[in-house]
């Protein structure tokens, strides 16, 4: 029923514009969502609340956790974004790949049944172009408290761990470990943000799952990992 209703709405440009308008109002009032000019949020996007969407940004077929935002010009699709994430300007998701070795040609007519050119030389699918999405149908996974810099490209199927930082202009084509700082084309690890014992502490704590009241009470401690750990190890 829901699918038929959605299809009916999308069949009319007037109904689509009206649905988008009223959904924006609902999300702003009920979820505390903030928008800038020409920000677009698809019908199937799940917003946990207090999210921000920059000028000319778009997000479709995705989930965005509490307190996370995407900056100006970011284009996000089929992505699960955790809580308290900062997605920089013009971050994009890239879907699909071509074979880069053994195959004589990279053209899809030699490995795919369906191609953009309307013909194929293949009798079956010889190369998987797209990553298998998770059970919630998201192909790119971004953890919690992740900062992704400007102009970063995220390849289909990558997972970025909690607390990671991706430097501006990087191309992420492999998974990024929690609390790693990566950069470059393709992205490679530069260093870890904290010592291993500190990373283990944060991984076990999962502060982003705490209540807003708990986080507000501890907010001043977030400025120094040593003070943060010492306080929690003493008080809790």
Description:
This protein is 24% helix and 21% strand. The chain is globular. It has an eight-stranded mixed sheet, with no helix packed on it. With 236 residues, the protein is α/β, with parallel strands linked by helices. It has helices at 2-10, 13-31, 196-205, 212-218, 225-235, and strands at 34-35, 40-41, 46-47, 52-53, 58-60, 63-64, 69-70, 75-77, 79-81, 86-87, 92-94, 140-142, 147-148, 153-155, 159-160, 165-166, 171-172, 180-183, 188-192. The N and C termini lie far apart (49 Å). The protein is built from five helices and 19 strands. The model has no long low-confidence stretch (mean pLDDT 92). The longest helix has 19 residues, at 13-31.
Mean pLDDT figure: 92
Spans with pLDDT under 50 lasting ≥5 residues?
A: none
The end-to-end distance, rounded to whole angstroms, is 49 Å
Spatial strand arrangement across the major sheet:
1-4-7-10-13-16-18-19
Please bin the fraction of helical residues.
10-25%
Order of helices and strands: HHEEEEEEEEEEEEEEEEEEEHHH
Percent strand: 15-25%
Shape: globular
Characteristics:
alpha/beta; 236 residues; 5 helices; five-stranded parallel β-sheet; 19 strands
Concise account of the structure shown:
The protein has 236 residues and is an alpha/beta fold. Helix content is 24%, strand content 21%.
């Amino acid at each position: 029923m829901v699918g038929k209703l959605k299809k009916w709405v999308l069949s009319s440009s007037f109904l689509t514009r009206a649905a988008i308008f009223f959904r924006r109002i609902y999300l702003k009032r009920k979820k505390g969502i903030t928008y800038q000019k020409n920000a677009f949020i698809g019908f199937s996007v799940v917003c946990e609340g207090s999210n921000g969407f920059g000028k000319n940004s778009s997000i479709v077929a995705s989930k965005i956790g509490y307190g996370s935002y995407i900056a100006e010009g970011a284009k996000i699709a089929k992505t699960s974004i955790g809580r308290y994430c900062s997605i920089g300007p013009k971050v994009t998701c890239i879907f699909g790949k071509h074979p880069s070795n053994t195959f004589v040609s990279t053209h899809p007519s030699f490995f795919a049944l369906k191609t953009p050119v309307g013909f194929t030389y293949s009798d079956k699918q010889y190369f998987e172009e797209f990553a298998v999405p998770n059970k919630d149908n998201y192909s790119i996974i971004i953890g919690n408290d992740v900062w992704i810099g400007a102009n970063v490209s995220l390849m289909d199927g990558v997972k970025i761990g909690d607390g990671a930082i991706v430097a501006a202009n990087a191309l992420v084509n492999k998974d990024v470990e929690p609390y790693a700082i990566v950069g470059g084309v393709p992205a490679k690890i530069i260093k870890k943000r904290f010592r291993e014992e500190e990373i283990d502490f944060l991984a076990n704590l999962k502060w982003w799952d705490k209540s807003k009241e708990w986080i507000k009470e501890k907010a001043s401690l977030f400025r120094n990992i040593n003070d943060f750990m010492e306080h929690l190890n003493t008080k809790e």
